User: Which sequence fits this backbone?
């Protein structure tokens, strides 16, 4: 059975090129569309945090555009796809678990 191609899907070679340049990333799939994202830097997260209190939607838009590697541009322009995708942006910052231990 053939896998259904997502709108905006890239080749395995493109993914490898991005991994070499940016390290591992994540993809978000929403309603048959895909977005490929790199992890943000501390500077980018600090900027996002400083702007989020003024306009959360705009800060999500800026954040998504900042870490965007490729995919379906419709995720950026279609409000329903955008809101579904941006629910996962926080996970791009907090995807690792840390343990707090006594010493």
Assistant:
């Amino acid at each position: 059975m053939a896998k259904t191609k997502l709108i905006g899907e890239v080749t395995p070679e493109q993914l490898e090129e991005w991994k070499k340049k940016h390290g591992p990333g994540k993809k978000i799939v929403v309603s048959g569309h895909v977005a490929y994202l790199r992890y943000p830097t501390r500077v980018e997260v600090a900027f996002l945090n400083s702007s989020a209190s003024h306009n959360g939607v705009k800060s999500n838009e800026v954040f998504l555009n900042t870490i965007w590697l490729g995919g379906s541009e419709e995720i950026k322009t279609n409000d329903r796809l955008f809101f579904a995708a941006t629910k996962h942006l926080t996970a791009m910052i907090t995807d690792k678990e840390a343990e707090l231990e006594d010493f």
In short: The helical segments are 12-22, 42-52, 56-67, 74-77, 79-86. The two ends are 53 Å apart (CA to CA). Residues 12-92 form a domain with the rbstp2171 fold (CATH 3.30.2220.10). The chain has a mean pLDDT of 90.
